[in-house]
Amino acid sequence: MRVINKLLEILLTVNDLSIITKRPKSPISTITRHTPTISDKTGHLPVLLWHGMGDSYDSSSMQWVSDTLQKEYPGLDIYSIYIEQDSQKDKEASIIGDAMTQLTDVCEQIQNIDYDPLKGFNALGFSQGGLFIRSLVQICDVKFNNIISFGSPQNGISDLPPCQPGNIFCEKRNELIKSKIYTDYIQNNIIQAQYFRDVNNYETYLEKSAFLKFINNELFKDLEYYNRLISLNKLVMVMFDQDETLVPKESAWFYDLDQKTGNLIPFEETDSYNYDLIGLKHLHKKGKIDFLKIDDIHLKLSEEDLTYIAKNYL
């Protein structure tokens, strides 16, 4: 229980609580460029938002996102996903709970929204919300068009938030917590542990992970997950160049880590891509994946950044 309390303490204080708004500095950078096809064909579809860890569906940061998108497209139908309607409980549910159960509940939630089932939704997810939006596409029998993830652990996280240099106590504490992260209790109750992917302890991850190994088809290939993801018009993955919260930050682009060297494995060289486990290779070959980056810290967004997304993908 002491380890669990320490883990909660860290998760509640990590600098991933909400979007940090900023004045325009430099526009979002496009690494792969494809001409958007949404607006001419489908008009402005309703938009789903999924907040990050420690945030809530009706927070000031999520309201800012909604206001910014509606400034570009007045009257745009926007729905902010929640686990609990009470703000504080929704915030707690982003840390404590079972991710797959939450996704199932959200699937039922959005099926009750008034939308065109043939056209479906566009969706934006922030930090872990981006992983959950992508997962929602896979598990939920609902049409999605474009999904955009911002600084999201698409291929999991490999470490806890970094310690200050020389803080031996912090380093030892993190080591202890990581040694307990694949216990049944933590896997079944702590959301962030459910997408913790330790490449140095990969067999244990495959045995004990309660969420990520399933949604990334690492244990077996779920063809329903695969077929739903490849039905997307566009998968957009945004990485923050100065991100120190997401470890590694390149997980936002679905990079992997080499189990032997610890070096980054680029997107097109990962097992997920080569074996096309969830459909990434299929989408990429069809020009349906865009890699974007913002030269700033985790979830630091400007109105200009969101306007770019709105104009190109909503």
UniProtKB/TrEMBL annotation:
It holds the Pfam family Palm_thioest. One of its GO terms (molecular function) is palmitoyl-(protein) hydrolase activity. InterPro entries: AB_hydrolase_fold, Palm_thioest. SUPFAM superfamilies: alpha/beta-Hydrolases. Its EC number is 3.1.2.22. Keywords: Disulfide bond, Glycoprotein, Hydrolase, Signal. This is Palmitoyl-protein thioesterase 1.
